[in-house]
Amino acid sequence: MLIFTCPCCGERADETELSPGGEAHIERQSVESSDEAFEGYLFIRENPRGVHFERWRHAYGCGKWFNAARCTVTLEVFGTYPAQTMRPPQDLLDHISQRRPGWTWRDLA
Question: Which residues fall within 8 angstroms of residue 39, CB to CB, at 6 or more apart?
């Protein structure tokens, strides 16, 4: 079971209290975008075996969105941070690098 600490209210919550929101840090497209760009936004996503950055909503708590870094293999949660952050905090990236030497994910490594 996944257990996250909500960075907005500080409460620890398991995945039954949260709503998943898909991959974090993707460029959102509008209806004015080209068909190819909109298709990429809707359907082309990372699905790594290992470290992944996701959006979650504290549905049965404060109701706010946040991002989380976790391992899709072991379900280890590396940390959470506010959804308004454009890039994961450097201390979180350093923590992941200590736990998973050599990991990469897009341009965040």
Answer: none
Full set of structural domains in the chain with CATH: 3-99 (3.30.2270.10)
Instruction: Kindly report the length of the chain.
Output: 109
CA distance 54 to 59: 15
1, two tokens: 């079971």
Higher pLDDT, 28 or 57: 57
List all residues 6 or more positions away from 41 whose beta carbon is below 8 Å from its beta carbon: 26, 27, 28, 29, 33
Q: Give the side-chain half-sphere CA count within 13 A for 97.
A: 10
Q: Among candidates 62, 52, 51, 66, which has minimal Cα distance to 20?
A: 66
Q: At 61, is the secondary structure helix, strand, or coil?
A: coil
For position 104, what pLDDT does the model report? 81
